[in-house]
């Protein structure tokens, strides 16, 4: 939770921490990656918005759906992982689409070549203005998940003083009534306009259960970086919430990742929300698995599955 004007005395601070429609090629892609053994993770989704990927507005105007088949991966939009349905871009307090919005555009990607990516912008805040891609009505919300994507944040908003923004979060059932849990990533800026990372689990926005600030890993401005999230859903001490940027750990929390054993209700992927406007971002090459990728297990500290540690 960001507190305006608070002083930071540690370089790495932990507060109160406890010790889509059809997937058309998952079998082929997993086999090609050589994913075998007890810790093998299954590829659930992968897309870089290439091919006939497009936005289709809903009839009520509150949502827009990403649809089509990615010609490079064979996976289809919209996302339907974990038994979800009705997933799409949610326009919240958008002031008639003037305050916030998203589109699929061509840009120079993280490899230096033109690519199609999800572009999102927030011109100003109109109450709780935001435009996340929501993975909705999850029916299998007690499972592990790994999410990876490339993102580019604008530098101008990250140079403003004392601001916050988020681009990824999820909530369990019961959160709106005070009986749930939220996992959320933040980028804060301090009173000098210097950005830093913040990783948080909370019972509501004003009451974090645990927090991790990271001042050591630089926040890229106007540069592509890869971000990774992994969690092991649990009511007990074996729970885990891990966040990495460019392969470096931002925060790694061990302990409960829910409250009252509530399952995950929805995931806000590609979220754009916060103050410090105007701001924008690009997101590309989304990958989702049911566990940490096998090639990275050794780097994670051994041969055991990440959820077992």
Count of alpha and pi helical runs: 1
- CATH top-level class: Mainly Beta
Run of helices and strands? EHEEEEEEEEEEEEEEEEEE
CATH topology: Jelly Rolls
The backbone outline, from C-alpha atoms, is globular
Give the fraction of residues assigned to helices: under 10%
The main pleated sheet reads as:
11 strands, antiparallel
Describe this protein with a few key phrases.
1 helix, disordered N terminus, mainly beta, 19 strands, 309 residues, globular
Describe the structure.
This protein has one helix at residues 26-32, and strands at 12-15, 43-47, 54-57, 63-69, 76-77, 88-90, 100-108, 114-122, 133-135, 145-153, 164-172, 182-189, 195-204, 207-214, 224-232, 240-245, 248-254, 264-274, 279-289. By secondary structure, it is an all-beta fold. The protein has a single domain (23-308), classed as Jelly Rolls. The strands form 2 sheets. Strands 1, 3, 4, 5, 6, 9, 11, 12, 13, 14 and 18 form an 11-stranded antiparallel sheet that branches. Strands 2, 7, 8, 10, 15, 16, 17 and 19 form an 8-stranded antiparallel sheet that branches. Strand 13 and strand 14 form a beta hairpin.
């Amino acid at each position: 939770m960001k507190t305006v004007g608070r002083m930071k005395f540690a370089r790495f601070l932990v507060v109160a921490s406890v010790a889509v429609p059809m997937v058309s090629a998952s079998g082929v892609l997993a086999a090609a990656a050589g994913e075998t053994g007890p810790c093998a993770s299954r590829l659930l989704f992968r897309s870089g918005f290439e091919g006939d990927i497009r936005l289709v507005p809903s009839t009520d105007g509150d949502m827009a759906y990403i649809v089509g088949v990615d010609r490079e991966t064979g996976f289809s939009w919209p996302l339907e992982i974990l038994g979800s349905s009705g997933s799409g871009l949610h326009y919240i307090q958008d002031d008639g689409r003037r305050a916030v919005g998203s589109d699929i555009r061509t840009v120079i990607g993280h490899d230096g070549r033109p690519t199609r990516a999800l572009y999102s912008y927030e011109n100003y805040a109109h109450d709780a203005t935001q435009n996340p891609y929501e993975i909705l009505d999850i029916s299998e919300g007690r499972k592990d998940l790994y999410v990876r994507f490339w993102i580019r944040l604008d530098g101008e908003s990250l140079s403003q003083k004392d601001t916050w923004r988020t681009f990824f979060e999820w909530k369990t059932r019961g959160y709106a009534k005070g009986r749930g849990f939220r996992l959320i990533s933040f980028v804060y800026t301090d009173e000098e306009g210097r950005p830093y990372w913040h990783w948080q689990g909370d019972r509501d926005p004003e009451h974090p259960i645990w927090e991790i600030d990271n001042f050591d890993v630089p926040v890229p401005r106007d540069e592509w970086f890869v971000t990774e999230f992994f969690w092991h859903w649990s009511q007990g001490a074996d729970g885990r919430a891990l966040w990495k940027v460019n392969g470096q750990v931002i925060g790694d929390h061990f302990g409960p990742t829910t409250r009252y054993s509530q399952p995950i209700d929805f995931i806000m992927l590609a979220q754009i929300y916060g103050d410090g406007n105007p701001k924008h971002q690009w997101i590309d090459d989304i990958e989702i698995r049911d566990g940490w990728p096998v090639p990275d297990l050794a780097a994670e500290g051994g041969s055991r599955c990440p959820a077992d540690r």
